[in-house]
Amino acid sequence: KAGVTQTPRYLIKTRGQQVTLSCSPISGHRSVSWYQQTPGQGLQFLFEYFSETQRNKGNFPGRFSGRQFSNSRSEMNVSTLELGDSALYLCASSISRATNEKLFFGSGTQLSVL
Amino acid sequence: DQQVKQNSPSLSVQEGRISILNCDYTNSMFDYFLWYKKYPAEGPTFLISISSIKDKNEDGRFTVFLNKSAKHLSLHIVPSQPGDSAVYFCAASDYGGSQGNLIFGKGTKLSVKP
Question: Are strands B86-93 and B32-38 parallel, antiparallel or unpaired?
Answer without folding.
Answer: antiparallel
